[in-house]
Each structure stands twice: as structure tokens, then as C-alpha cells.
Amino acid sequence: MSEQRDGMPDPSRSEDLAQFIGLLGELRAWAGMPSYRSLAKRVGPLMRPARTVSASTVVDAFRPDRRRLDLDMVVAIVRALGADEADTARWREAYANVHRLAKTGGPVGVFGQLPPDLATFTGRREQLAQLMETATRRRTSDAANTVVISAIEGMAGVGKTQLAIRAAHELVRAGHYADLQLHVNLRGFDPELPPADPSTVLESFLRHLGVPAQQIPADRDERSAMYRDRLRTRAALILLDNASEEEQVRDLIPANPDCLVLITSRRSLAGLDGAHPQPVDTFSEAESLDLLKRIAGLDRVAAEPEAATRIVEYCDRLPLALALVAARLRSRPAWTLEDLGNRLQTGRLEAIRAGGRALRPVFDLSYQGLTAPLQRVFRLLGCHPGPDVTPVLVAALAGIPVGDADDALESLQDENLVHQSTPGRYELHDLLRLFAVELAGAEPEPDPAAPLARLADWAVATGHAAAVAINTPSPTLGPPDWSVQPEAFDSYEAGLTWFDRERENLTAIQMSAAKAGLHRRVWQIALVQKQFRVVRHHFDDYLALQQLAVEAAQACGDRAAEALMLSGVGRIHWATDRLDAAEDSYLRARQVYQAIGDRAGEGGALVDLVAVQASRGDYSQAVHLCTQALELLDSPQSLRPRATALLNRGVLHERLGHVAQAVTDTHEALAIYRRVDDRRSEALAIGNLAWYHLVDGDTESSIHLYRQQQDLGLHLADNFLQADSCMGIGEAHATAGHIGKARDVWQEALRLYREIRHPRAAAAQQRLDATTGEPATAWTPTDWSAPQGQD
Question: Are 491 and 498 in contact (CB under 8 A)?
């Protein structure tokens, strides 16, 4: 091939399509700048086949923003501008090269200056301060003298790139890393192009650093070594945006400790030695509103503050989502913020877009980068109705081993698709949850009902094990037909802690199971929580769930379960002083037990009714009901409700002035509770005996018994029992004239009652506020055994 003619531009110098088109413009200048009209007339006959070509078509070929060029058009233009066959061959080869590079990710846009800072950048003061401090920290004499690397990590759309660019600009403005700034988009998550090849990036960096093309080694390791050598004396800032993994950036990190490397990624880069992780979370509400004001306009946001807050909530404070909806609002001046809020309420993901940009494709890129097993787990997270998950819960949800579920959650966290709120518990951002729900609907399981059914089984099986651990009488669940292996609990505290942590999940699963028609699991989930709700005095939402359980029991035709659930409804009404409603529920339960011929069940319902009559002050009628109940509770299987009837009859005898009979009944109840290992009821019985001694004036024995009750309450982690024993000890001290000691334990009782938001906190406060020296009968204990129903 002959040498290129003097002055003619060399097309082989083009690194990308934009440069190629620029050189095509230089060729036109070399040919004397013929007009586009005259050039069009020359080009037409040279096309294959020959045709008429408009001037505008030729103009388009010289536009630098073109993403593709027609090869026949290029060849015809080059020939029309005076190129011979050898020259034309060079242009054809250069054209093929730049298009080949474009298909593989091609030269990767290395810039000698940073990308422009965003005028709408908002918040991130703490993260910026941390990045600045890390980048400018003075090295101690014993610290490793290595390059500073900050890895900015977070979910898609959280604003990592904007944070990195702002930090880079502030550092340069402050006089740091002023020698050189290099920036590259590594395209770790690009919808059209593959991740940038580190070797190609190194070539571009070296060219920018002044290395002639012919001196750049072909080997990647050699390029990396040359790159480090070129930066050994320069204080450079290297911004590596949108990295896919650690391996993509290792060779792009210089060795000079005077350099700074800022890396952004959706994935965790924990495997990168020496990197300082900088996690980026969603905005605060204030930052979210500020971004909305900056883009949509301060006046519009100020005019509709409630609607603005709704928009922030629907976007769940994700910066990209907020930026998109704010830009959409700005482009539609006729819309109110209320209009946009309504669209977000009905459309959520679909409504979060502006122009050609949308949120869903951004999430989809993260999802498509997962392995098939991880994709399935992520989809199934959309089937979980609760607020968070654990490895054990995900194992049930997906029907996989717990170890695999743990690995999957860790991997999803590395991808910033879930985050740990507390150790071992993972959450999805609300918008990612919606995305997972969409995916679960688009790619359902072979049996779409199976994930929720497994979750319901997990709730019942593990709930049952936890209920037994907190000394709940074994719930009447029937044969264990659940499909998952329950967790094990080795102590009262472990069982109670599990209920504390899973309460919201259990509620969500029960409600979803009701909608799905899993009736048996619905009432069973309510049943296993009964003792936990009593211990923690969590009744705010439990009534609706218990009523749902009644309906579920009726729907599956289980009359014994129906009666049991009705007793549960009555228990909540009684505990919250709705006595008429409690009596109605207990009477309905008794009618069901009578209809199915269950003597023990009927006896339990009568015990429940005793509490209602006692709360009304009708002690004689209550004693009569207790005696009736004891006649029915005459079988070995009825020991527990029999003990409850005896305990409650003892309370009634004391209130009627028959203390000796009260002590006799209570000792008999205490013996049964110890026999069946019901520690909480045992504590209640001991507290009752302590009170009877106090009424008789034996303060020393009373304090001794209350402290036994207090020790049991502490062992059971039961704030209510501890608080009640403190109240009793205080009464005994006050009766003995030790007011200072009494006030100390009443103060502790007040703290414990308040911790569980128990209404008896008011009684404790009244005793603290009361005049000293009041008689013990100014306060009466909660010495009533909580109605249990038939277990």
C-alpha cells in the first residue's frame, strides 16, 4: 500500500467514532472545503448503486454526535474528496476499527478534567466531610505509605457518582491533587455496552499521560506498570466511576501515595485491599425536599407542603427517583404536586420517569447481573409481606437450606439490593420491593401459592417452639403438618426475643395468609402469640388479628378452634377494660364448647367469665362461676385451667374477707402450676400469697414472697411481673413505715410499667404522688390470673 499523501489526515489516529468524523471533516478541509451541496452531487454517482443524495444527508455524515455511519456513504465521501484507492482502503480500515471498538465498549472517554459538577447537588455533608478527611488526612509515621482509595458504594440511583464528582471538585478547588485528574466511566452497569476493559482504559490513560501510541505495550501488566511509573511523581486524582468489580479497577490504581482514587460501584468492593468503604444511603426527608425544591422550584414545593411530603414518601427518599419526578414536574407547569402524588400513588415505578429516563431500567441492570439462583431469591423477597427478613425466613420462603439463604442475602447485600438494618436482619428499599413484586408476578414460581404457604408454616412451627419456650401451655395445633423445620429455643429469653423481633412479620404473614385462604394457619399464628402478647401487653393490633383468627376458624369448620379464638378475643377485651365485649366473647365460646360437648373447654370459658364478674365487683357471682368451673375441670387434662380457677377463687375469697380460704385455694393452685412447670402462673400465685400476708399485717413474709416473685419475673424477662412485685414490696415497706424504701421500688415499678406502656403506670405514679403513710389497701395488686381459655 502506498504512503499517505502530504497533508491528508490519517484516519488511523481515530480512537472512536467522534474522532473519525472529526478527521472526515479535516479531509473535507484538505480537499478545499467543497460545499455540502456540491459534495452531494459528487457522492451520489459513487454510491453502489448510484442514486441521488441530498445535501442534508451529507451534512448528517459530518455530525460529531453520530453513533453510526453508513460504510458506503463514507467510502463515497472519501472518494469524492479526492482519495485514491490506497487512501480509501485506509479510511475503510479505520471505519471498521472504530465500529469494532464501539461494539466492544471501545475507547472509554478518558478526560483530562473532571465531569461538570451538578448545580442540583444536595446534602451529603457527612459523607463529603468523611471523603475529604480521608483524602487529606496527615499520615502518621507508623502508617503504611500507600495510595488513598475511597470506595463509594450504594444501591442503584442513590447518587454515588454525583457525590464522587462533588468531592473531586472540592478537593481540586482546595488545592489538592492539582497535578492531574483522570476520569473514566467503567460502565459496570450499562444497558448497551459491556464493562470497560481495564487494558483499554490503561491505553487511554497512557495516551492522556503523553505516551505515544507506538510505545504503549500490548500486554496489560506492562501497561499497568508503565501507568504506575508515569504517576510516581504526580499528585493525581483518579475517578473510576461505575465499577463492576474489584478486578476491573486493580490495575488502574497507582502506587504513588500522593494520589487519590475515588471509585463508585453498586457492588461491595470489600475485596479491594486498602480501600476505605464509604456507603451511601438514601436521603433524609429534609435532603429529599431540598432536591425537590432545587429541580421543581421552591415556590411550587412551598405552595403544597403536604403533597411534597407524599412525593418524598412515594420515592422513598431515593435521589434518582426524586430527581426524575422533579424533572417531570418541572416540564409540566400545569401539574400540581398533588397531581404528581396521585400518579405516583397509582403508578409508582411506572410514574418515576422523565423524558427518556426511568427508574425501572436502572434497577433491571442490577437484577440482570445476578446469577439465576440469586434472581429467584430476589424475586421471592417480593412475595414476603413483612418489613424484613432473616436467613431462616428466606430459607422457608424459597424452600432452600438456611446456609444457602444466608449466602444469598450476603451476595444481595454485596450488590446493594438489600441492606442490614441490624445484624442478621435484611431489608429492601421500598422501590426495590415494588420491583421485586413486579418480577415475582412476571416470573412466578411453578406453584405461586407455595412461598406464602411455606412462610405461614414457618410462622406456626417456630412460633409454637418459641411459645413453649416462654412457658405457654402447648397450643392446640393438632399434628405438626408444617413443611419447614422449626427453630429451636433453649431458654425463656430466647423465645421471647424471637417474638419481639418477628412480631411485625408474624402480623403481615397472618394477614396475607387470610387473604390467600390459608385459614388453619391464620388462627394458629394468632394462637402461638397469645402468651407473648400478654407478657409484653401488646394488644393494640392484636384484637383485629384475633378477630381474623375467629373468622378463619369458622371458615375451616373447626369449632374447637373457633371457641379458642373467641376466648382470645375476650382476653384482649378484658385486658383493655371492655368488659361487656369480653363477656360476650366468653359466652359465645362457652356456647360452642357446650355444642361440641367439651366439658374442659366449657370450664375454661367459665374461668374467663370469672375475671369479668370480678372486674365488675360482683365477687359472689364470680365465686359461684369458679365453683361451677371446678366441677367441670375434673380430668387430668384440665390441670392448668383448674389451677387458674383455684387461683382466681382465692382472690375472690380475700376480697370477701375470707383470707384463710384464699390462702388454701392459692397454695393448691401453686402446687399445680409447679407440677405443670408454668413459671409465670407460679409467679402470679406467689404474688397473691404475698398480698394476703400483707393484708394480715405480716410485712416480713410479704416482702420475702414478693422478692421470690420478682426473681421469677426477672428470670422470665417479664416486665409486668417485676413491676407488680415492686409495687407489692413498696406497699409492704410503706405499711412498715419505711417510706423512702417504698418510693425507691415504686419508682422502679413506674419505669417497668412505662417500658411496656402498661396502664398500671398511672397507679404507680399515683402512689409516688400520694401522701406518705397511706394504708396498704390504697393499692390493690394485679393478682388476677389472666384468663387463658382452653389450651
Answer: no
Q: How far apart are CA 160 and CA 168, in angstroms?
A: 12
Q: Enumerate the β-bridge partners of residue 239.
A: 183, 262
Q: Of 340 and 536, which is predicted with more confidence?
A: 340
Dihedral sign for Cα 623, 629, 634, 638, please.
Answer: negative
Instruction: Report pLDDT digits (tens) over 411-467.
Output: 998 888 888 878 889 998 888 898 999 999 899 999 999 999 999 999 999 999 998
Using alpha carbons, select from 108, 110, 265, 69 the residue that is nearest to residue 193.
108
- Starting at the edge strand found earlier in the chain, the sheet holding 275-279 runs 180-185, 236-243, 260-265, 148-153, 275-279
Contact 166, 128 (CB under 8 A): yes
Cα–Cα distance, 504 to 388 (Å, whole number):
9
- What per-residue string of b and e applies to 635-651 under the rule 16 or more CB within 10 Å gives b? eeebbbbbbbbbbbbbb
Helices then strands, counting H and E runs in the chain, come out as: 36, 9
Q: How many CA atoms lie within 13 A of 247 on its CB side?
A: 3
Q: How far apart are CA 395 and CA 385, in angstroms?
A: 15
pLDDT at 104: 52
Per residue in 177-212, pLDDT (tens digit) is 878 889 888 888 877 678 889 998 898 888 888 887
Q: Which amino acid is at 663?
A: V
Distance CA 290, CA 324 (A): 14
The phi and psi torsions of 784 (rounded to 5 degrees) equal -90, 130
Alpha helices for 516-578 (secondary structure H): 519-528, 530-536, 542-555, 559-575
Identify the residue with better confidence: 531 or 372: 372
CA distances 650 to 340, 579, 770, 783, Å, are: 65, 21, 29, 10
User: What are the distances in angstroms from CA 720 to CA 480, 566, 723, 737?
Assistant: 32, 25, 5, 26
Strands 148-153 and 260-265: parallel
Tell me how far apart the alpha carbons of residues 566 and 580 are, in angstroms, rounded to a whole number. 14
3-state class of 5 per DSSP? coil
Grid cell of 351 as nine digits? 410514574
Separation of alpha carbons 244 and 456, rounded Å: 38
SS3 assignment, position 518: coil
Residue 624 vs residues 136, 627, 629, 630, 707: alpha-carbon distances, Å:
82, 5, 9, 10, 33
DSSP for 612-670, written as a single string? HHHHHT-HHHHHHHHHHHHHH--SGGGHHHHHHHHHHHHHHHHHTT-HHHHHHHHHHHH
What is the number of other CB atoms lying within 10 angstroms of the CB of residue 18?
17
Backbone angles phi, psi at 181, to 5 degrees: -130, 130
**Neighbouring-strand partners of residue 353:** 358
- Backbone Cα Rg of the chain: 38
Question: What φ, ψ does residue 406 adopt, rounded to 5°?
Answer: -65, -45
> What angle, 0 to 180 degrees and rounded to 10, lies between the N-to-C axes of helices 599-616 and 579-596?
160
Q: Which pLDDT does position 452 carry in this prediction?
A: 95
CB distance 315 to 322 below 8 Å: yes
The pTM score is 0.70
Cα(first)–Cα(last) distance of the chain, in Å? 97
**What Å distances lie between residue 377 and 363, 374, 397, 549, CA to CA?**
16, 5, 9, 30
Answer for the pair 720, 533: CB distance below 8 angstroms, yes or no.
Answer: no
Per-residue burial over 440-475, b if 16 or more Cβ lie within 10 Å, else e, is: beeeeeeeeebbbbbbbbbbbbbbbbbbbbbbbbeb
Query: What cell does 402 get?
Result: 438456611
Q: How far apart are CA 561 and CA 569, in angstroms?
A: 12
The grid coordinates of residue 693 equal 400476708
Which residue's C-alpha cell is 363477656? 583
Residue 616 half-sphere exposure toward CB, CA atoms < 13 A: 15
Instruction: Please confirm whether the linkage preceding 486 is cis (ω < 30° from 0).
Output: no
